[in-house]
Amino acid sequence: MDAEAPAGGVAAAGLAAAEIKTVSDSLRLLAAMVGDLKSEIATEWDQLRQATPGADHRKLGKMVKGDIDALIRLIIQQEALLNEHVKARYGAAGQPALDLDAARSEIGRRLDRLRRARGTGAVSGRAE
User: Fold this and answer.
1) Residues of the domain holding 35
2) Out of 53, 75, 84, 97, which residue is the most buried by the measure of CB atoms under 10 Å away?
């Protein structure tokens, strides 16, 4: 799957534009873009609060939250499509061999998503 993406997202995912060829790469790119978006929103939000002290920013906050929620839902849907593709290609059972790299990658993706959702630091015991 070839994709065109903003430079910040690609750099944050550690991918060059030419390397975005798989669904897995696209998922990493989307996750990086969510992180970039979160940082940009926090910066803009702080600037807005400083520019308009005492104003009610709840309406804007709800709109931004809705946009972020929609992006997160898109990422989760893409991850589900990837899982369906993998099951269709290799089967849920009777795989020729256990692919430890794929399992490690899947666990890493899920842990990364949980960390981003909680805003916590690293999980102990993660392989470097």
Assistant:
1) 7-118
2) 75
